[in-house]
From TrEMBL:
Location of the protein in the cell: Cytoplasm
Entry protein name: Triosephosphate isomerase
Binding site for substrate: N11, W12, K13, G182, S222, G243, G244
Annotated HAMAP family: TIM_B
Keywords: Cytoplasm, Gluconeogenesis, Glycolysis, Isomerase
GO terms under biological process: gluconeogenesis; glyceraldehyde-3-phosphate biosynthetic process; glycerol catabolic process; glycolytic process
GO molecular function, one term: triose-phosphate isomerase activity
Listed InterPro entries: Aldolase_TIM, TIM_sf, TrioseP_Isoase_bac/euk, Triosephosphate_isomerase, Triosephosphate_isomerase_AS
Species the sequence originates in: Sulfoacidibacillus ferrooxidans
Listed GO CC annotations: cytosol
Pathway(s) served: Carbohydrate degradation; glycolysis; D-glyceraldehyde 3-phosphate from glycerone phosphate: step 1/1; Carbohydrate biosynthesis; gluconeogenesis
E.C. code: 5.3.1.1
Role played: Involved in the gluconeogenesis. Catalyzes stereospecifically the conversion of dihydroxyacetone phosphate (DHAP) to D-glyceraldehyde-3-phosphate (G3P).
Record field: catalytic activity: D-glyceraldehyde 3-phosphate = dihydroxyacetone phosphate
């Protein structure tokens, strides 16, 4: 049986100046022993402006560094964008792709998310690919259809990479129902587990048994220290992607401790 390391990933969104990010890393030093690397990967996905130098500070407290977004092109005339190589320069090991806020407010398509996933893997970063249904889609009973569509194109592109022998490296899929993000309303653990089972079966069907066993699936949507356990106890849920509750040191540490 494959043992998948749990992942507790903080998404700071557009919060924290450089000074505030430094203060967070500094305060984490007090909790260094609680952020043990053995059973859990603890991760902070910080805004671009805070990435430089933050990775070194987080490493000292066993926390990894990630970004929240990335462009798929290697380089070029893409004002305001950032490439995989640039994120790597800054020490990012992970990158969130296709967060619902990017899909909703910046019109990121399933296809763009799929391309970015391949580019991140090529650059040896771990992509965290976000999928999830809106409230109206959920009410229409379309959760599984939406998640299958969003993931379908990602998996097709990964299958092509695999056929070329170029699929190398781990990836993470975050199931984040849009209605649960930042709303204080979270999915029931059973509903999240049902979608995670679907995701794992789609990965297995497209990329094979090994990939299906190894892919880490995390839940996101109003996760807090007092509810994270109910999710990570589910057999197909390997951690959480957390926005609001990752912004304070005490609650970030408590999230890691609960896993
Ligand atoms: C997120 O930003 O991905 C998220 C899940 O936010 P929150 O935990 O605040 O709902």
């Amino acid at each position: 049986m494959t043992i998948r390391k749990k992942l507790v990933a903080g998404n700071w969104k557009m919060y924290k100046t450089l000074h505030e990010a430094d203060a967070f890393a500094q305060e984490l030093v007090e909790y260094r022993d609680m952020l043990s690397p053995s059973s859990v990967d603890a991760l902070i996905c910080a805004p671009f402006t805070a990435l430089c130098g933050l990775g070194e500070k987080l490493k000292q407290v066993h926390v990894k560094l990630g970004a929240q977004h990335m462009h798929e092109a290697e380089q070029g005339a893409w004002t305001g964008e950032i490439s995989a190589a640039m994120l790597q320069d800054l020490g990012c090991e992970y990158v969130i792709l296709g967060h619902s806020e990017r899909r909703q407010f910046f019109a990121e398509s399933d296809e763009a998310v799929a391309k970015k996933t391949c580019v991140a893997l090529d650059a040896s970063m771990v992509p965290i690919v976000c999928v999830g249904e809106s409230l109206s889609e959920r009410e229409a009973g379309a959760t599984q259809t939406v998640v299958s569509r969003q993931l379908g194109i990602v998996l097709e592109m990964l299958q092509l990479q695999k056929a070329k022998g170029a699929l190398d490296g781990a990836f993470v899929i975050a199931y984040e129902p849009v209605w649960a993000i930042g709303s204080g309303k979270s999915s029931s653990a059973q509903d999240a587990q049902d979608v995670a089972t679907l995701i794992r079966s789609l990965v297995t069907a497209t990329l094979g048994q090994r990939a299906g066993e190894q892919v880490r699936i995390v839940y996101g949507g109003s996760v807090k220290p007092d509810n994270i356990q109910t999710y990570v106890q589910q057999p197909d849920i390997d951690g959480a992607l957390i926005g609001g509750a990752s912004l304070q040191v005490a609650s970030f540490v408590a999230l890691v401790e609960q896993v």
